[in-house]
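Possible regression after last week's pipeline update?

I re-ran a chain I had predicted before the update to compare outputs. Posting the input and the new output here so someone can diff against the archived version. Not blocking, just want to make sure nothing changed silently.
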Amino acid sequence: MEASTPRVLLRSLLVSYVLSGILLIITSFALYKFRLKEAQVKMAVNVIYLLSCAVAGFLMGKGLKKQRFFCGLSAGLSYFLVLLAVSFVINKGLTSDTAQLLTTLAFCVGSGIIGGVSS
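New output (post-update):
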């Protein structure tokens, strides 16, 4: 029986957001314990985006077993869009500048593609 695309995408996103949550908790503990600078925290958050989207792309590519480039692209893009929507709702608007949003989009989509292709 072949897996459906929405189901595989949702499963991949769920795993990637759980991974993000765990890594963010570890980062917050490191921030508290080692008094990290803002630049270090921003870099850690970007690494978390990269890892989480790569995992989502990898799982989606493994789940569908075809068109892995587009699986990774859609996983990374979906991760970014959910992140953007949640941020929009919580902050009651966009608080980031355009350059930061585009950088985050590039990180998410690029690492999702790498994860999908490597699956």
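Follow-up from reviewer: compared with the archived run. Helices lie at 5-34, 38-64, 68-91, 98-117. Marking as no regression found.
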